[in-house]
Amino acid sequence: MLPILARITLPETARRGDIVPVRVIVRHPMERGIDAAGLRPVPRKILHTMRVIYAGEEVFRLMLSPGIAANPYVEFSTVAIETGTMVFEWTEDGGAVYRREARLVVT
Fold this sequence. Notes:
The chain is an all-beta fold. The protein has strands at 6-9, 13-14, 19-26, 34-35, 40-41, 47-54, 57-63, 73-79, 84-92, 97-106.
């Protein structure tokens, strides 16, 4: 797994059963395969999948397309079940997988 620059925002604590908002912005160029300025081909590098695992279950999955702008922003919600780590994974064309983690404390 490779590191990636991402800002993950979620509450520091939540009560069991609360709806928890999660906001993520990831720094990625989302190269579509053409240099628009000179219309020269460049290697395509697109994040095509984002998934989030929490409490051992996949709680969110997003399929991205070449039409998504650089530095994609995503917002979703999940239910606070237990204290634990949310694992965020992005898969890029060519198979590279990037990973970040954020902790949620449930009271």
